[in-house]
Amino acid sequence: MCISPTHFFHNMSVFDTPSPSNSSLESSPFSQDLQQKKCAICFRPAFSNNYGVLTCDACKMFYRRIVILNREYKCKYGGGCAHVAKSTVVKCKGCRYQQCLEAGMTFQPSFAELTNEKDFDAATTVATLRFLDSRRSNAMKTQFTDEDFSLLEVLEKRRMKMKARRSEITNHEWSFFGIYTSIEFLMSLDFMSSLNLNIQDKKILLKHYCVKASLFASAMRAMKEQRNTLMTVDGKEIYPDAILRLKQISPQFLQRIRSLLVMKLIELKITDEEFALVNAIFFCNAALPLSEDGQKTVVTQQKAYSSALLQFCNVESSRNGPTRFTNLLSLLHVINKNFEDVKAMTMLFRIFVKDVSYRKIVTDVI
Questions:
Q1: What is the CATH number of domain 14-107?
Q2: pLDDT in tens, 161-182
Q3: Sign of the CA dihedral running 179, 185, 188, 189
Q4: Domain locations in the chain?
Q5: Which of 113, 268, 308, 338 could form a disulfide with 261 if both were Cys (CB 3.0 to 4.6 A apart)?
Q6: How far apart are CA 248 and CA 233, in angstroms?
Q7: Helix (H) / strand (E) containing 55
Q8: Residue 99: how many CB atoms within 10 A of its CB?
């Protein structure tokens, strides 16, 4: 589900709903039955239940707007509009909303429907991250590059030239491309173009996290495809059994690399929105040896992403929001463990398997 931070509402009131006037319709049994149904709020014709109460469309949208926009209205007569006007139909928004509540209307908005200023910022953040990750995912599915840049060259030249992928690629090439597309994703984050981050800051940030981002994305894809191990985009084992020919690698160790992170995501039932925000939070690591300006920028950005994640958790699970937030952040330990295992396996390959060549960027980051 894509979050759209912008929502449009019709400007409606109780007076926008016309009464049926066609005499032939009024005489039909069906229309007579409908006419007997009155909105519980304004007593005009109502044809369906909305948020648990029989209401007209105008009252439904009125109630929905107030809840989503988090508006507050107060009656200037202290809630006595109906008595002052000597009518059960009131124009006062405060009293009308109170009538909605007393009638039993209930509505828990989803994160995507919230549009007050704080939630708008959070929704925009999620939408941007999901768009960038979608671009990364599409590149993984359809493209490749033959160019071989170092991490520093990528930072200076910005990107390698992509081409449509027309043939199968090896497991090592899949690993390289997963890392490179994750670098492209991370470099596309707004704050990475900040003048407060020098090239060395960016290099440190990317070197520390790009492989972890690739593993995280691969595990997320496996979970969504209802798999319990890391796989390539074309459905093959990223780390096949052939690796076990290297006696220094045990079956248990290989299985842990394949499944540890995927199984944790399955356990948490992580959503696309949570994945996008958690990924960005983990990337913003101010504990790294960055410049003073770089650290300030990264701290500010991590706080913004963390605030958006907490807001999302509170909206999606109002009672367990903080617990959900904590559980999601605990993923960092699992991602770090997965990375350390992959790093150890890569070192073993370099020592004992001499005929494997690695792209420059892989050598730089693992």
A1: 3.30.50.10
A2: 899 887 888 888 999 999 999 9
A3: negative
A4: 14-107, 117-365
A5: 338
A6: 28
A7: strand 53-55
A8: 21
